[in-house]
Every structure is written in structure tokens, then in C-alpha cells.
Amino acid sequence: MSAPTAQIFVSYAHADNQLFDAGTKGWITEFVDKLEKAIGMKPGGNNAKCWIDYRLEPQRKVDEALLGHIRESRFILAFMSPRYLESEWCAKEMHAFVELAGGHADDRVFLVELLPTKRECWHPGVQAIAELKFWTSSLDQPDPMILGWPVPDPKGDRPYWNELNRLATIIARQIQDLPPIPPDPPPPPDCPEPPTPPSGPLRVVINADQTDHQLGKAAQKLLDDLEVDSAIAPEPISTQIPEDYNRHLREQLEASHGVLIVYGLAPPSWVQSQHAMARKLLATQRKGIWSGLLDGPPQEKPDHGLSSRSLMVLDCRQGLSVEPLKNFVDALREHHV
């Protein structure tokens, strides 16, 4: 088992990294350089490496190359600001990281707030995460100003250096908690056999986000009453490698006749990503209806945005009941048992 590497993906708005004058670096470039060195001085931080895309906004895009860097990163460091929230690319970077983390990124996202922002405008997957405030204002200086702007002074800007040191300590501790990276698995055979539909009793995977876990458990009890072998997909662990979690979920899906995705308090983006993963695995192996969307309480929430001939939407916004689940089970049995 090799020591864990800790690539940190840096997500920022180019407008926040402008050069103040010749011979200086942008504020974010300077910050990331100092942060990486500070992390390296902490116990467990010697394997930290920051990755930052210096392309200008018009040239940036969330392509396969960038997704590769996001997949390789154990953490993301986002510089929150009004310009960050305006950036389409920054939003896509954060969305991609949160989705790859399985929707649970509490211990893997670090937020540096450069200027005041509205938390409700952040990605739903990071709204509960505490930010480190790198701006200040006062009665004498009511307009917010970034700490250490435009160029941090090693002697005079103590709040800047104190907060940078605090962030380095937090990241180093998280690196120490990372699990070891297992050795590479053996290469697959040249012509692997595609997964075949399972035989035996009807089996359903219930996929519920952490916020909808209780609703998923209630649905499992009703499925048990309908004599369906059901299992709730495991929740990802904050220190778990995303690839390991996704592989485990894929194995569960391939061994099932269908999947029931729970949509209560989870963000629509999470619901859509889970359905996309299930569709990629099951669409060519299953016929007719193989996926269900348990559209539960609350009544007022965004549309889930899903539409597919293989998907049955179970309207349970008024409350969970057995009848919609029975209709879903009957549709599964018609094609798969």
C-alpha cells in the first residue's frame, strides 16, 4: 500500500487573480504558492500538491482533461467571491467535484471567501461547509477588502498569514486521515463479458442521499412487505476514494433487477447523476421499466429534471404509501422475473 497522495484542485475566477503591477503575481497565485509550502511544513503534509488551471476564462472548459485532474484530486480549494459565483466554469468545476465525491464532500472541500457572498448562491453540496474569511471591513473602512491585497506584506499583514497558516493546518490534518491507496488492480481481460441480468428473487437497490436516508428506510420496509429483496446503497465515507465508492455502487446495481432513487431533500443534480450512472450500467441489460424515482416530501421543491421510458416516477409528495411502490414492483416483475 502506497502513501496517500493529496492533489488539491484549485477552483477560482480569473478576475480574482489579476496582476496588480509588473513584477508581482496574482493574489490567488501568490496564495496557492505560499499555502502549498505551508502545508508541506505540517505533519503529514509533505505529499500535498496544488493543481491550478491558469487558462483565461474564455479558454477554460470542463473537458475530459480537466475532469481527469478533478478525479485525481482528493480535495478542492475554492476561492468564493461575487465573480466566482458569476463564473459558469467555476460552477461546473465545483459541480463535477461534488458529483464525483458522491454528493458528500464535507471533509474534502475547503472554501476561502475573498469577499462577502450569499451562501444560498453556493453549490447545494457545499452550503453547509464553513468558510475561511479572507476579507475585512470596519467602521472606518466599510467596503470589504481582501486580506493581504494586492500583495501580502510578511510583516504587516498578520491576519492574512494567521488564516493561511490555519488553513494549512486543517488541510494537513485531513491529509493525515486519508486512507492508503491500494495497489492497482490486475488488468481486465481483453474481451470482458458484459454483465448479465440477475436471476432469482426480485432485487432492488434503494439509492438515497444522506438527507433522505430515513425516507429510503421507510421505502425499504414497504418493499419488504411486497416480498422484494431490497438494499439501501451505502453512503460514501468522507475519506473514501470516489472510485472505490462508485465501484461498490456499480456492483450492487449490476446484481439488481432495478433501482429506486429517492428524491426528497436531495438536490436535483444528485438525483440526475445517480440516474445517469444507473442508466449507463443497466439500460442495455434490462427491458421496460427498471428505474423508479420516489418523488417524496416536501411538496414544494425544484423539478427533478428526469425523463425516460425506462423510468417510473412514484408521486409520494403527499407522503409515502405502498400503492406507487406496488406499481413499480409490478412493472419490474413483468419484465425481469
Radius of gyration: 23 Å
Strand order of the largest sheet: 2-1-3-4-5
Distance between the termini: 43 Å
Our count of helices gives 9
Structural class of the secondary structure composition? alpha/beta
Low-confidence stretches: none
Instruction: Note the main sheet.
Output: 5 strands, parallel
Count of extended strands: 12
Query: What amount of the residues lies in strands?
Result: 15-25%
General shape: elongated
Mean pLDDT, as a whole number? 83
CATH class of the largest domain: Alpha Beta
The CATH architecture classification of the largest domain is 3-Layer(aba) Sandwich
Domain TIR: 4-142
Protein name: TIR domain-containing protein
GO biological process, one term: signal transduction
Region (Disordered): 177-200
Give a short overview.
It holds the Pfam family TIR_2. The chain has helices at residues 27-40, 64-72, 82-86, 88-100, 158-176, 213-225, 242-254, 268-282, 322-336, and strands at 6-11, 48-52, 75-80, 109-113, 132-133, 135-136, 145-146, 203-207, 229-232, 258-263, 291-295, 311-315.
